[in-house]
Amino acid sequence: MTTTTTATAARPATAPDARQPRLVHALILLVASGLTVLVTAILGPSLPAMQAHFKDVPGADFLVPLTMTAPMLMMAGLSVFAGELSDRFGRKRLLVGATLLYAVVGTAPLYLQSLTAIIASRFALGVMEAVLMTVSTTMIGDYYEGTRRERFMSLQTTVAASSAFVFNTLGGVVAEQGWRAPYAVFALSLLLAPLMAVYLWEPRSRASMSAAQLSEDGQAFRPGLLAFICVLAVVLGVVFLTVPVHFGYLFGAIGVQSPSQIGLAYGVNSLGVIGGTLVFGWVLANRVSVAWQLVIGCAAAAAGFLLMRGAADYTTLTVAGLVNGLGCGILLPTMVTWNMRELPLSRRGVGVGAYQSGFFFGLFINPVLVVGLEKSLAGTRAAAVADVGVVLLALGAVALAVALLRRGR
């Protein structure tokens, strides 16, 4: 773990670009990375109606939820390759092309009649999302440096959490028009692609380096550190999806069945995530080391999980969700900026992609892991969630030991 948040792993091997990013560039890249939340946020309310439509299809109870998880699996498997392509061949054309195709495959269920074909389109969507998330994140790292980069990285999570809050609400309204209707929202990327083509420029990357520059820049690459960060990204993925997937079950266990009350609690958790990202970007990023950022984030997120185990009423459980969201909002940009800071320019795309692959793999395995804990060890869903909190506490303790050791030096 690095001791400062402003250190850089390597100086760029090419001359600085004279162009300076403006607000429009930040908005384009932040919105591009936020498109991926559409999958889980806007489609959820329409799944029961979709399952009723395909009730005669064998295995529909398993296949319909797969329309939401299939993109996550593709992002877990392909983000690292998307990053490698962006390093080798450049970023802008890849990003614009994926944004256009995102609309094509995203809206395909509007007219596809077969559940199998719809699922295939969801896998294709995951490919586009792997490119969108990886390349847009990498380009934020290309366009910005130092504290500005870290604030924009925190805003990336802020935009994603805010989008989830908005689209969760919008999804219920749109789903009233039929289970196919929410898929029309994926066409929004058609508005974004022309803005990318006009405003974004191709940043420096491995594709523009000479052999000598590539050799010099690559000396700063530490694959062992990247592998360690990616392992932590898997853990973070499991942590981050725990509330979105299991919060409703925890409310059901204490007798709260009202969808509006549960929805409000989810909204409070999202506000916690937003608050955590702002705390990171404007308080922690340039004041404390990565180790201390991890200590604070792990402590808050773990406290939320542990509170959930003992919560016996609506208010306590909702507050637990808020506390956990605050911790997750700190952890997400902490990990992304730490990873970005350690990557030399020539490996930035593949390094960001590897991190994204680890994170989305953690998202994908969360339901199996938490339910497995419930069945084999914990006994209840709340206890299984608390076990995730214990793992976070252990990680925070290691980070604390590193922070104190480095301070002693």
**Overall CATH class of the largest domain:** Mainly Alpha
Roughly what percent helix?
over 70%
Radius of gyration: 21 Å
Give average pLDDT, whole number: 86
Could you list the spans in which at least 5 consecutive residues all have pLDDT below 50? 2-16
Strand elements, count = 0
Provide the CATH topology of the largest domain: Growth Hormone, Chain: A
Largest sheet: none
Order of helices and strands: HHHHHHHHHHHHHHH
The secondary structure category is mainly alpha
How many individual helices? 15
**How many distinct folded domains?**
2
What report would you give on this structure?
The chain is mainly α and 409 residues long. It has two domains: 19-208, Up-down Bundle (Growth Hormone, Chain: A), CATH 1.20.1250; 217-409, Growth Hormone, Chain: A. The protein is built from 15 helices and no strands. Helix 4 runs antiparallel to helix 14 (348-378), helix 10 (223-253) packs across helix 14 and helix 12 (290-310) runs antiparallel to helix 13. 52% of the residues are buried.
Question: Brief description of this entry?
Answer:
This protein is mainly alpha-helical. It has two domains: 19-208, MFS general substrate transporter like domains (Growth Hormone, Chain: A, Up-down Bundle); 217-409, MFS general substrate transporter like domains (Growth Hormone, Chain: A). 77% of the residues lie in helices and 0% in strands.
Task: List descriptors.
single chain, 409 residues, mainly alpha, Growth Hormone, Chain: A, 2 domains, disordered N terminus
